[in-house]
Design brief:
The protein is of the alpha+beta class. It contains three helices and four strands. It has helices spanning 12-28, 40-45, 69-76; strands at 2-7, 32-37, 53-56, 59-63. The chain has a four-stranded mixed β-sheet. Strand 3 and strand 4 form a beta hairpin. The longest helix is centred in the N-terminal third of the chain and has 17 residues, at 12-28. The protein starts with a strand and ends with a helix.
């Protein structure tokens, strides 16, 4: 099961990144768990200074932008 983590304070871009991540996982038919990390201290533990960010299985893949569904599918494949 893939761990998808959205790092951000809950802004519209963070929500869109979460939607795109879920859509990518659904399209690939993979099992996943999505968590939203909103505490600044926790976000900084990932080394992220600009949100939104996406981590897959604890590894940061996207920082400071909303990756589209196709980009996220490539990261998950």
């Amino acid at each position: 099961m893939k761990q998808l983590q959205i790092l951000g304070t809950g802004c519209p871009k963070c929500k869109k990144l979460a939607e795109n991540a879920e859509a990518a996982a659904h399209e690939l038919g993979i099992e996943y768990e999505l968590s939203k990390i909103t505490e600044i201290g926790e976000i900084m533990k990932f080394g992220v200074m600009i949100t939104p960010a996406l981590a897959i299985d604890g590894t940061v893949k996207v920082v400071g932008k909303v990756a589209d569904v196709g980009q996220i599918k490539a990261m998950l494949a």
